[in-house]
From TrEMBL:
It is found in: Cytoplasm. It comes from the Bacteria. The keyword Kinase applies. Its main location: cytoplasm. Its EC number is 2.7.3.9. Belongs to the PEP-utilizing enzyme family. Its cofactor is Mg(2+). This is Phosphoenolpyruvate-protein phosphotransferase. The chain holds residues 240 to 548 of 548 of the full protein.
Length: 309
C-alpha cells in the first residue's frame, strides 16, 4: 500500500487534509532545473548561483549572469523561484570572491559576509537576477546565505528592493539567526532554513568530515528545537519559512517539519515525489503530533522511532 501511495502524488504539496506545504526543487544548473520541473516541483526553493561559477577566474559580467540565470529559471515561467546570491566558502571557493587563506574558513568571510566588503559585486548580481526574472517570466525571490543578525538581514533586503526585486529573504543556517527568527522575519519577506549548515554550526561539527557525521544528523532533537523556533516565528508573523537543506528530502522528517510549522520543503530532484506523497498521506494534526513526539526525545534514534508510522 505504501508503494502505491508513493506512486500517486498529484503534484500539489499538501497534507491529507489540505494544509499547503509547497514542494520545491534545489537546482544549480539548467539541467537540474529541467529535471526538477519534470519531477513535478512546484517551484525552486534554492538556486545555488555559485554553482554556475566554480570554474570562473573572473567575475562574470552582468549580461553573462543574466543569460546564465535565465537558462535556469526558464522551466519555471509563472512559478516561484528563490535565487540565492553567491555563497562562496571553503567548500565552494570562487576565484574572484574568496578571501585570503583563513584559519577557520567555515567561520570566516563567506556567504553574505563577502558582500559587506564588496557590495558592488552583490549589486551587479542583483541587477542580473532582476533581468533574468524579466526574461524568464519566473516569479523570482532572492535570498542571502550565511546571515547571522537582524541588521544583516535588513541590509540585504534593502539592496534587493532597491534592485527592483519584489521579495527578499534570508537563509537561516547560523544558530544566532534561528534564535532571532521572529525579528528577522519582521525585516524580510521570508526565510529558508539551511539545515546542512545549521547542523554544522549548532554541533560545532564540520559537515565535510566523516568522523563527526553522527552529530550532523537532521533528526538531532537540538536541531529540531531550533526548527520549532523558526516554525513558531512563521506562524506569528504569517510569513513563509521553508527548509532547503538535506533534512527536507527525508519523507518521514518532512512530516515533522510540516508539524513544526515550516511552509515549504526544497530538495534534490530524486526526493520530490516521495516527499510529496508522504505529505499527502498524513493530516496536519498527525504531523503536529509527530513533531511533538520527536521534540520530547533526547537523541536521533529515539526521534526516528517516535516518528515511525
Ligand atoms: C544548507 O546549508 O543547508 C544549504 C541548503 O546550503 P548549502 O548546502 O548550499 O550550504
Ligand atoms: Mg548552507
Amino acid at each position: 500500500a505504501a508503494v502505491a501511495q508513493l506512486a500517486d502524488w498529484n503534484g500539489t504539496g499538501a497534507t491529507a487534509d489540505g494544509h499547503r506545504v509547497k514542494v520545491y526543487g534545489n537546482v544549480g544548473s539548467p539541467a537540474d532545473a529541467q529535471a526538477a520541473a519534470d519531477a513535478g516541483a512546484e517551484g525552486v526553493g534554492l538556486f545555488r548561483t555559485e554553482f554556475c561559477y566554480l570554474d570562473a577566474a573572473d567575475e562574470p559580467t552582468v549580461a553573462d549572469q543574466r543569460a546564465a540565470y535565465t537558462a535556469v529559471l526558464s522551466p519555471f515561467r509563472g512559478k516561484p523561484v528563490i535565487v540565492r546570491t553567491l555563497d562562496a566558502g571553503a567548500d565552494k571557493p570562487l576565484a574572484f570572491l574568496s578571501p585570503e587563506a583563513e584559519p577557520n574558513p567555515a567561520l570566516g568571510v563567506r556567504g553574505l559576509r563577502v558582500a559587506f566588503d564588496r557590495p558592488e559585486v552583490l549589486g551587479r548580481q542583483l541587477e542580473a537576477i532582476a533581468g533574468a526574472a524579466e526574461d524568464s517570466g519566473a516569479e523570482v525571490s532572492v535570498m542571502a546565505p550565511m546571515v547571522a543578525t537582524v541588521e544583516e538581514a535588513a541590509w540585504f533586503a534593502e539592496r534587493v528592493r532597491a534592485a527592483g526585486i519584489a521579495r527578499a529573504g534570508v537563509m537561516i543556517e547560523i544558530p544566532a539567526a534561528a534564535l532571532s527568527a521572529r525579528e528577522i522575519l519582521e525585516a524580510v519577506d521570508f526565510v529558508s532554513v539551511g539545515t546542512n549548515d545549521l547542523a554544522q554550526y549548532t554541533f560545532a561539527a564540520d559537515r565535510q568530515l566523516g568522523a563527526v557525521a553522527k552529530l550532523n544528523d537532521p533528526w538531532q532533537p537540538a536541531l529540531l528545537r531550533l526548527l520549532k523556533l523558526i516554525g513558531d516565528a512563521a506562524k506569528a508573523t504569517g510569513k513563509p519559512a521553508g527548509v532547503c537543506g538535506e533534512a527536507a528530502a527525508d519523507p518521514r522528517l518532512a512530516l515533522v517539519l510540516a508539524g513544526l510549522g515550516l511552509t515549504s520543503l526544497s530538495m534534490n530532484v530524486p526526493a520530490i515525489r516521495a516527499v510529496g506523497a508522504s505529505l499527502a498521506a498524513a493530516t496536519l494534526a498527525e504531523c503536529e503530533a509527530l513533531a511533538e513526539a520527536t521534540l520530547a526525545t533526547s537523541n536521533p534514534t529515539a526521534a526516528r522511532t517516535a516518528a515511525r508510522p
